[in-house]
Specification:
The chain is mostly helical. Among the domains are: about 75-135; about 140-165 and about 220-295, no CATH class; about 175-215, no CATH class. The chain is built from 10 helices and 4 strands; from the N terminus they run H-H-H-H-H-H-E-E-E-H-E-H-H-H. Strands 1-4 form a two-stranded antiparallel sheet. It has a two-stranded antiparallel sheet with strand order 2-3. Residues about 70-115 and about 125-135 have low confidence and may be disordered.
C-alpha cells in the first residue's frame, strides 16, 4: 500500500510539473504579445509626432523658402529630385522627398547592399531549381485509381460516386491571439468568397506563386463514395440470402487500400490483407471475396 501511494504521489507531482510548464509558457506568450502591442503603439505615436510638427507652420516655411530661393533653381531641382527618387526606389529603397539624394547616391554601402541582395536572390533560385526535381504526390489521381479498383473488384456495383455540396453559410471560429477570446461568426456567400481569395493569396505569397516548395503542410482531401443496397436490410438477409455487413466490409477495404497508397505516384496500393490485423476476420473475408486478396 505504501509503495502504491508513493507511486501515485510521484505521478501526481510529474503531472503538476507538466501543467506548470504549460501555464508558464502561456503566460510568457501573453507577456510577449502585450510587449509587442506596446511597441506598435509607441512606433505609431513616434511616427505621428513628426508629421504633426511638420504640418504646423509648414505653409509659412514653404513661402519663406520660395521667396529666398530664385525661381530658376527651384524649377531645375524639382525634376532632378524626382529622377533620383525613382532610381533609388527601383533599387528597393524608400526615400522621403526631404532627404539628401546626392549623399545617398554617393554612399558605397547602399550599392554594396543592393548587390549582395541580388546575389542572395540568385542563390535562392539555384537552390529551388535543384529542389524542383523532387517528385510530388498527385492527389488528383486518387478518384481515377479508385474508379478502376471499383470496376475491377466491386462485382455488385454497390459503390457509387457521391457529390458533396457545401452549404451556403459557414461558421468560422477564430482567435486572433492568446489575449483574446475565440470569436464565432457566420459567413455568407460574399464572406466565403472573400476569405477563400485571401487564403489563396496568402498561399501564393508564401510560395512565390508556386516557385517555393512547402516542406510541411496538412492537406485534407475528401473523396466520398456511397455503398448502396438494391434491397432493404431484411430483404438482403431473407430474399437475397446475403450478408450486407460483409458487402460493406468489402467496400471499405477497396477504398482503404486505395487511399493508403505506399507510392508517391499512386500507381501502387496497400494489399487488403495488410489492412486487417484480426486473423479470423481476414480468413472470413478472404473466403467470401477471394479476388480482393489476390492482388
Amino acid at each position: 500500500d505504501s509503495s502504491d501511494s508513493t507511486d501515485r504521489a510521484t505521478e501526481l507531482a510529474v503531472v503538476k510539473g507538466h501543467v506548470k510548464n504549460v501555464m508558464d509558457m502561456i503566460s510568457h506568450e501573453k507577456e510577449k504579445q502585450l510587449l509587442e502591442e506596446k511597441r506598435k503603439q509607441e512606433m505609431l505615436q513616434a511616427r505621428a509626432k513628426p508629421e504633426r510638427l511638420a504640418m504646423i507652420g509648414g505653409a509659412k516655411r514653404f513661402r519663406r523658402m520660395a521667396r529666398a530661393q530664385p525661381t530658376r533653381t527651384s524649377t531645375v531641382a524639382t525634376p532632378r529630385m524626382k529622377v533620383k527618387q525613382i532610381q533609388n526606389e527601383s533599387n528597393g529603397l524608400s526615400i522621403k522627398a526631404g532627404a539628401n539624394l546626392d549623399s545617398l547616391n554617393d554612399d558605397p554601402n547602399i550599392t554594396a547592399n543592393n548587390t549582395a541582395d541580388d546575389g542572395d536572390v540568385h542563390e535562392e533560385d539555384e537552390v529551388m531549381s535543384e529542389d524542383q526535381e523532387v517528385e510530388d504526390e498527385d492527389f488528383t489521381l486518387i478518384p481515377e485509381i479508385l474508379n478502376g479498383k471499383v470496376e475491377k473488384l466491386d462485382s455488385d456495383s454497390s459503390l457509387r460516386s457521391t457529390i458533396l455540396k457545401l452549404g451556403s453559410t459557414w461558421t468560422r471560429l477564430r482567435q486572433e491571439n492568446l489575449l483574446t477570446q475565440p470569436i464565432e461568426r457566420t459567413l455568407d456567400s460574399t464572406d466565403i468568397t472573400k476569405e477563400t481569395n485571401q487564403a489563396f493569396d496568402l498561399l501564393d505569397a508564401l510560395s512565390r506563386s508556386g516557385s517555393l516548395a512547402i516542406d510541411s503542410a496538412e492537406l485534407h482531401v475528401v473523396v466520398a463514395l456511397s455503398h448502396c443496397f438494391d434491397n432493404s436490410v431484411m430483404g438482403a438477409l431473407i430474399q437475397d440470402n446475403i450478408n450486407p455487413i460483409e458487402k460493406v466490409e468489402r467496400s471499405a477495404l477497396i477504398v482503404a487500400s486505395t487511399i493508403h497508397s505506399n507510392n508517391k505516384n499512386n500507381d501502387n496500393h496497400v494489399p487488403s490483407k495488410h489492412l486487417l490485423a484480426n486473423g479470423h476476420v481476414k480468413a472470413r473475408l478472404e473466403s467470401s471475396f477471394p479476388a480482393l486478396f489476390q492482388e
